[in-house]
Structure formats: structure tokens, C-alpha cells
Amino acid sequence: HTPLNYGLSMTAISLIILLLDWILGERIGYGAIIDALLTGNFVQIFNDLNTLPKNTNLWLGIGIMIIGFVFMALGMRIYMGAGQCCGPRDALLVGVGKRLPQIPIGVVQVGLWGLAFILGWVLDGPIGIGTLIGTFGAGAVMQIVYHFLQFEPRNIKHRDIVQMTRALRSPF
To answer: pTM score > 0.85 for this model?
Structure first.
């Protein structure tokens, strides 16, 4: 519905989500800004290069998605645990999760992805089995992985741009 390609649209949405994160009181660090500005552009480059063959096997595709969700959860655990701030979407997850402390973080993730699903559907975006699995599967897998790792992202104290700048400027 816009003249923007997928990558630029993703960047624009990331910047809007970053604003929501700031409104929710989440700390915004260098990594969050870099993520917002670069991730969409890298996705666009990989889409344009089209280097991966198209998967035509439904069950293989589902398996790859689930394995991908495990790696996403592990990666999120590693970078969130460093306390250097989150990317825009993960900061939104943490910010909403802090306001719903009794709800497991994976369920919060399903809710956020569900909202994105509904917005995409309203905007006539393509909906398929992968969309449904992603909406419900990513949060469920994340919850399982975080349970085994005994990780709660809402408990991490992140450093924002000001704190990181001070830390980088001070001698050891």
C-alpha cells in the first residue's frame, strides 16, 4: 500500500516501534537504533539476491521454521542477556511483558505476533500456513527454550545510549 519496498517498509515500522518502546519507558541503546536502521535493508538485499532455493516440501518447511524458532530464541537469549538493549521488536516484547508480569513472555510474544497477523490480514497481506505457524509457534518455542535456560527477559537491566556512551568514554 506504499511505494516503499519490503526492506524500507520494515525500517519504517522498526522506527515506529522504537518510538513505542521509548513511550513504554524501555531503554534505547545503540544496538536498537542500528537494528532499526539496518535489519530491513539487509532483509531487502537478501530478498533481492534470492540466493536460497524455494522450498516446496510442506513438512520440511514446517521443520525448518521450528528449528529457526529455536535458534531465534537462543540468539535473543544471548544478546538480551548482555544488557546492551534490545532491537525494536524485542524491546516492545519486554516493555509489554513488564506490564503483564503474570503472563508468560512466550504468550506475550504470541499476542504481539497475533496483532501483527491481524494487521497484515486487514491490509490484505498474504496469509498461509507459515504465517499461522509463525504467529503461534515462535512464542511457544521461545517459552520452552527460555524455561529450559531459566531466562526471563523482563529481569535484564539494559544500558541506554547515555549509559553506554559514559561507559565507552571512561577509562578502564
So the answer is: yes
